[in-house]
Design goal:
By secondary structure, the protein is mainly α. The chain is built from 8 helices and 2 strands. The chain has a two-stranded antiparallel sheet.
Length: 180
């Protein structure tokens, strides 16, 4: 089958199929004229890769999954471990997106959105870049290493993630918007 036919059946663009060939995920036969000749097995591999990529597996994860799929002596524990690791990464991304959404929702709520030029959204965006993983880990590690009394006073000095214009009720966040 030619690349157009296999692309239709595997529901992948021809460019993606050529890329998968370039990186060694599939190796179609060649006709005497040099054109690719995809087998049913190649089409099945491409569909497998398409489904794995749609689930967010990396190319290297797909390579490993394909190796495991083709190995009749595999242990399902290996596949489960790979999928579980990927699921944990997805959960981390979801948590980061929820945090991002909460921060942005707080900023949108804090912004008057009127004729005045001051805007908490722009003020927050103009701050030093926020690095959620490093800052959260550093803060947690620092607070864990302190005594309970030191932890309480340090917590009061740390402001909310929404920034200086937050109106939340957290004990560490007692700032308010200059618009109020």
């Amino acid at each position: 089958m030619n690349i157009g036919d296999v692309a239709d059946r595997a529901r992948l663009p021809a460019k993606t199929i050529r890329y998968y060939e370039d990186i060694g995920l599939v190796t179609p036969a060649r006709r005497p004229n040099g054109y690719r000749d995809y087998s049913e097995q190649d089409m099945h591999k491409l569909a497998f890769l398409g489904r794995a990529r749609a689930l967010g597996f990396s190319i290297e994860d797909c390579r490993l999954l394909m190796t495991l799929y083709e190995d009749r002596n595999r242990e399902s524990a290996e596949v489960k471990a790979l999928a579980s690791d990927h699921l944990a990464r997805i959960d981390e991304k979801i948590a980061e997106l929820r945090q991002m959404r909460a921060t942005l929702a707080d900023l949108v709520e804090a912004c008057a959105g009127d004729h005045r030029p001051d805007c908490p959204i722009l003020a927050d965006l103009g701050k030093t870049p926020y690095r959620p993983n490093r800052l959260n880990i550093s803060r947690a590690a620092a607070l864990t290493a302190m005594s309970p009394a030191a932890t309480a006073s340090a917590s009061l000095a740390i402001s909310c993630r929404a920034g200086p214009f937050c109106n939340c009720a957290k004990s560490a966040c007692r700032t308010s918007s200059p618009n109020q």
